[in-house]
Structures are given as C-alpha cells and as structure tokens.
Automatic annotation (TrEMBL):
Superkingdom, taxonomy of origin: Bacteria
InterPro entries assigned: Lon_proteolytic, Lon_Prtase, Ribosomal_Su5_D2-typ_SF, Ribsml_uS5_D2-typ_fold_subgr, TAT_signal
Domain Lon proteolytic, chain residue ranges per copy: 150-241
SUPFAM superfamilies: Ribosomal protein S5 domain 2-like
Range of residues in the leader sequence: none
The protein's name: Lon proteolytic domain-containing protein
A Pfam family hit: Lon_C
C-alpha cells in the first residue's frame, strides 16, 4: 500500500468516525407532536372544565376546544436522524429544547412550572372574561379543572368558555353557533392575547378532533398557515373582545378577520 493510499484510508476512517459521532451524539432539540384537545364547555375526566358559582349559566351547544402539543422529555436524547426525519414530516416539529422547556432541568421541575403557569392562566382568563362582560370577580367565582395539562396557552379558550357560559353572544345565541371551534393563545387579565408556539401542530390536533375554525394569535398567522389542514379556517385575534366579535360575525355572516 502506497503512502498516498494509506493517507486516504486514514482520512476516510476519520471522516466516517466523525459522521458516526454526529449521528450518535445527542442534540439540544426536542421533537414535538400534535397533543390532546379538550372542549372547555364540556367535561374532563367526569368533571366540568368550567364551574361557575354566583351567577346563572347558559346551556351551550358546540365546542370550544383548547389545543396542546406533546414533546420528547427534557431527559430524552434526540439525535441527527430524529432531527432530519422531523424536518420532513408534517406531524412532527423539531424545536430547540429551551423553547419547549425554558425552565427546569428535570420532569418534576418542569411539571411544577407548567402547573403554576396553568393556574396563573386560569386566573387571568377569569378576570379577562368577567371584565369583558362587566361582571365583578367579587360576586362570581369560576373554577377551572383540566387534568394533565400545563402552561398558559389555553388562556384564550378558557376565557371564551366563561363568556359563552355566562352570556353567549349577548343576544341569546352561543358563541360557537353549534360549531367545533379550536384555538390557542395566552391571555392577560386585561384581555390581551399572546403568542404560544407550536401552532402548526395544534391546528393538526384541532382538525383531528373535528374543529373547522381555529383562533390563532395574530403574530402567529404565518406559522399557522404553514401546515394548515385542508378546510380549516384561521381567525387571527389580539384581544378577547376581538375574539368574541369575530365569533359573533362568524355566526351572523358578517366580516371575519383572516390571516
């Protein structure tokens, strides 16, 4: 074997070793998938998602479905083949691990953080909904119960569910007009809707569970359009008032915002 041949063989072996190391090395990513959805106007595990005391409530039709994603855990190893596969699949998304798990280094810490965010989101949703209706939080109490879900992204749908149960569209009709409407978005006590991430996967979860309309934070319209299921209508929102008005217009055939 000549010296040139030996050098080429050594270089090839080194390249193969580097490629193998790249394939086997864990990467700082998480792989996310469409998660569960839940009708906030209905029950979850035998309990009403929204329970209101101190005021009369309406019997509602249709559904308002919060949406979620699921992702590989913070301790899971994601490798190059997983990332490549995720880039080419519509029902998967490769996301930086810190975007999925911004706080906490293990499952317990993350679960505690998500539970705290969910509780804060529920309080904000209650304040936003009652404020939108001009009702007092001193007289009306709202309990929200949704098992196995964390984070703040259901805030908008919680608020809409409270509005629908208390007042509907204000003229005796349901906000849903009998439809299955899904959505996502954080909410402040003042009713501002914020971005959440993972929207393309959430539209797929919504479509899977029968929704034909999806409420999306306006800033995430582009993301929502990227993998939008056929027949799904996007309605961008920035505030709870805007979301309520859009659903009223959808029922009556008026002008509805679009992405």
């Amino acid at each position: 074997m000549s010296s040139r041949t030996r050098a080429l063989a050594v270089c090839s072996a080194l390249v193969l070793a580097l490629l193998l190391a790249a394939v086997l090395a864990p990467l700082p990513f998480a792989v996310a998938y469409p998660g569960m959805t839940a009708n906030v106007l209905g029950n979850d595990k035998g309990k009403p998602v929204i329970t209101i005391t101190g005021a009369g409530t309406r019997k509602t039709s249709g559904q308002l479905r919060m949406t979620s994603i699921v992702a590989t855990g913070p301790d899971a190893s994601v490798h190059l083949p997983d990332v490549i596969e995720g880039w080419f699949r519509k029902d998967e998304a490769v996301m930086p691990r810190e975007a999925v798990y911004p706080v906490g280094n293990n499952t317990e810490e993350i679960a505690e953080h998500n539970a705290k965010q969910m509780a804060e989101s529920q309080d904000s949703a209650t304040s936003a909904a009652l404020g939108q209706l001009g009702r007092s939080t001193k007289d009306i109490k709202v309990k929200l119960s949704l098992a196995d879900v964390g984070g703040p992204s259901a805030g908008l749908m919680f608020a809409l569910g409270i509005v629908d149960k208390l007042d509907g569209d204000g003229a005796g009709h349901d906000l849903t007009a009998g439809r299955t409407i899904a959505g996502t978005g954080t909410i402040t006590a003042g009713g501002k809707v914020g971005a959440v991430g993972g929207v393309p996967l959430k539209t797929q979860a919504a479509h899977r569970d029968g929704a034909s309309v999806f409420l999306v934070p306006r800033k995430e319209c582009t993301d929502a359009r990227a993998e939008l299921p056929k027949g799904m209508r996007l309605i961008p929102v920035t505030t709870l008032d805007g979301a309520v008005d859009a659903l009223k217009a959808l029922r009556t055939g008026g002008p509805v915002p679009h992405c």
